[in-house]
Amino acid sequence: MKNIAVEVVDIQNVTPLVKQFTLMNKNNSELPSFSGGSHIVVSMNLENRLIKNPYSLMSSPFDTKIYKIAILKQGKSRGGSLFMHERIFIGSELKISYPVNFFPLFKKAKKHILIAGGIGITPFISQLYELNKSKLNFEIHYSFRSNNLGAFVNEIKKTYKNHVNLYCDENNEFMDFEKILKNQPLGTHVYVCGPKSMICVLKNIAINLGWPSNHIHSEQFISPPVGEAFNVYLAKSKKEIIVDSEISLLEAIENAGVKADYLCRGGSCGKCELEIIENDGIVYHNDNYLTEIEKNLGKKILPCVSRANSSSLILNI
Ligand code: FES
After folding, report:
1. What average pLDDT score do residues 252-264 get?
2. Which of these, 147, 214, 247, 287, has the minimum number of CB atoms within 10 Å of its CB?
3. Structure confidence at residue 130 as a pLDDT band (50, 70, 90)
């Protein structure tokens, strides 16, 4: 996939754990257009390994002079968020992908209900620009752990005051999904982004209340998790590779010079799916794309986020 060279032109400390980065095209021209809910993939050179993480675009889709992304500093991770927090400064250069959108607004909806948990607020910020400009009917519900960890709370409250409902765990304020989803006008769509447990609970409640499944939209990008190193044989390419503990299977395949498909790099789109020809161990399916049946059958793996523990894993690539 083609990359764009960008320069970091501004960095803001949004909370003690979240930094916002403003990016501009290195050649000063406009960046590619995008719609609310899109994400980009940022390439990071960490010493001797290249890792690529997806981040939601949270700037206005009506201003493509800049892109903004916000990154949560994560303790137990492959080092991508730490790299961005500690090694990227104003003036740093980064390579990013073109924007892709797996979480768009359904523009013909009668009403839009946005539900965010923690850093899951980021894709909604670009969508809010669209909803506000088009004067569409919407409400946003945003929950966060504590008053000092709620990212962009003041901006959202100020700009969308008639639409916003805030819930701070520290103040014992919690969302009541049933109350939020009940008695909404026919044709309403709900969008949820946050921790997996939150997405599951909301979806179950919506289905039990009779919401059509195609009116329920969710996004949960998973950062490729760390794990034990393992070996893989790439049958078509005739290459044996080692997937080290801090790189993903997809990155290991790419680092071996083998071309692999991908879009989200976060376990959501299915574009990177590979066929498992042989496996004598366990596959850790970390994606939220394959069905439970497909995961149990063990014939497919999404290498952007999934790992394995086996002595012989052979993939059809
Ligand atoms: S690239 Fe989207 S699921 Fe792997």
Report:
1. 92
2. 214
3. very high
Amino acid sitting at position 284: Y
Mean pLDDT of 140-169: 95
Cross-strand pairs, 23: 8, 67
Res 1: pLDDT = 65
Query: What are the residues whose beta carbons fall under 8 Å from the beta carbon of 92, sequence distance 6 or more?
Result: 7, 8
Our answer on whether the CB atom of 53 is closer than 6 Å to any ligand 1 atom is no
Q: How far is CA 39 from CA 85, 119, 150, in A?
A: 19, 14, 21
Which numbered atom of ligand 1 lies nearest the CA of 302? 4
Q: Are strands 274-279 and 313-315 parallel, antiparallel or unpaired?
A: antiparallel
Minimum-distance ligand 1 atom for the alpha carbon of 265? 1
Residue whose entry in the numeric block shows the structure tokens 């799916």:
273
User: Which secondary-structure segment (H or E) carries 159?
Assistant: helix 153-159
Instruction: Please give the distance of CA 102 from its chain centroid, rounded to a whole number.
Output: 10
- Structural domains in the chain, CATH included, are 3-97 (2.40.30.10), 111-219 (3.40.50.80), 230-315 (3.10.20.30)
> Are 166 and 153 in contact, with CB atoms under 8 Å apart?
yes
Ligand 1 centroid to Cα of residue 28, in Å, is 30
Residue 62 has pLDDT above 70, yes or no: yes
Report which DSSP code applies to 228.
-
Query: Amino acid identity of 214?
Result: N
d(CA 238, CA 299): 19
